[in-house]
UniProtKB/TrEMBL annotation:
It comes from Thiomonas bhubaneswarensis. InterPro entries: PilW (IPR032092). Keywords: Membrane, Transmembrane, Transmembrane helix. GO terms for biological process: type IV pilus assembly. Pfam families: PilW. The chain crosses the membrane at residues 6-26. This is Tfp pilus assembly protein PilW. It comes from the Bacteria. The keyword Transmembrane helix applies.
Length: 331
């Protein structure tokens, strides 16, 4: 073997090695891109699926009479309280970026809201309501046991006449429910569930004045579902999509925030009012009870970082938009 032959062989080996390395790097880059796209798609699918469930339940009682609600919770806005989840009149209520959302604190601590993003409150009922066998003015007998409910849960009871929002006092896990004695927080201002309740009470009457009412057989009872969706600070200092909802601890209701999808950096929401030709942001909504659809845009980042020649690896960023019809308000 001559020196020239050796040099030619080395050159050919370098070419082959270079081609192999180039193919490997291109394949790795393609794999990372596909991985990042898959992460964004999976995250957006989960986010929209869960958010859509809450949106479609907003304002729903199970009997189609959400506008006729006897709210006897002490913390309801009509009864002198100010808790957002006890205000059935705001079954759907959005907040524009830099507008104060009473459900959540803005700031840089974990689970605090990023004030540059939109948020929305959605109040309705959970799936899996139970049917009433018989009733008195302050108790119900169900056809099947309320095995997944706990004393202190907020319940929505309805029949063709009207609905009521009340806190369960006793009977969890059984077929007999009572609200005469309620949990320590917030409690009921009366055991009477007649419609309408009268807050504030006229002079000479007690707060939350209401007539006794006996619900009919086959009335429906469901647990209250209240959720505030927002983008907040996650434990790593990044941004995530959060859901703030109710938790029952020993019969007392309080609020807690749950991280739903990580690496959601922005949420922008537009609302459609019945009779309007276009969507508008929260600041333009004239009547929240007339909102029948939402257009939600989420900006998501991948956990996988892509390598770009001459630059540091960066995550893939995509903005995904969907439209949710509030089926309880769409005729």
């Amino acid at each position: 073997m001559t020196l020239v032959e050796l040099m030619v062989a080395l050159l050919l080996g370098l070419v082959v090695t270079g081609v192999a390395i180039s193919v490997f790097l291109a394949s790795r880059g393609s794999f990372k891109t596909n991985m990042a796209v898959g992460e964004v798609q999976d995250a957006s699918r989960i986010a929209f699926e869960l958010l859509t469930r809450d949106a479609r339940q907003a304002g729903l009682t199970g009997c189609g009479n959400g506008s006729s609600m006897a709210n006897v919770l002490k913390n309801g806005t009509g009864n002198g309280g100010n808790d957002w989840w006890a205000d059935w009149g705001n079954a759907v209520h959005g907040y524009e970026a830099n507008a104060d959302d009473p459900a959540v604190t803005e700031g840089t601590a974990t689970a605090n809201r990023d004030a540059t993003t939109d948020s929305v409150q959605l109040i309705g009922i959970e799936e899996g309501g139970l049917s009433v066998k018989s009733a008195t003015t302050s108790s119900l007998t169900l056809w099947s046991a309320a095995s997944n409910w706990a004393n202190g849960d907020a319940l929505v009871i309805c029949d063709p006449d009207h609905a009521a929002l009340v806190q369960l006092g006793s009977g969890s896990g059984t077929t007999s429910l009572s609200w005469v004695t309620s949990g320590s927080n917030p409690g009921n201002c009366t055991a009477n569930l007649g419609f309408p309740t009268v807050p504030p009470a006229p002079p000479g009457t007690t707060a939350c004045s209401a007539d006794p009412y006996t619900y009919r057989a086959n009335a429906m009872v469901s647990r209250l579902n209240a959720a505030d969706w927002y983008v907040g600070v996650n434990p790593l200092g990044g941004r995530s999509l959060y859901r703030r909802t109710l938790t029952n601890s020993g019969g007392s209701l309080s609020e807690t925030s749950q991280e739903i999808v990580r690496n959601v950096t922005d949420m922008q929401i537009l609302y459609h009012e019945n009779g309007e030709a276009s969507y508008g942001d929260a600041s333009t909504v004239a009547d929240w009870n007339a909102v029948d659809a939402m257009q939600i845009a989420l900006t998501l980042q991948s956990a996988t970082r892509q390598s770009v020649a001459g630059a540091n690896a960066t995550p893939l960023t995509r903005t995904v938009t969907t439209v949710i019809a509030l089926r309880n308000r769409v005729s």
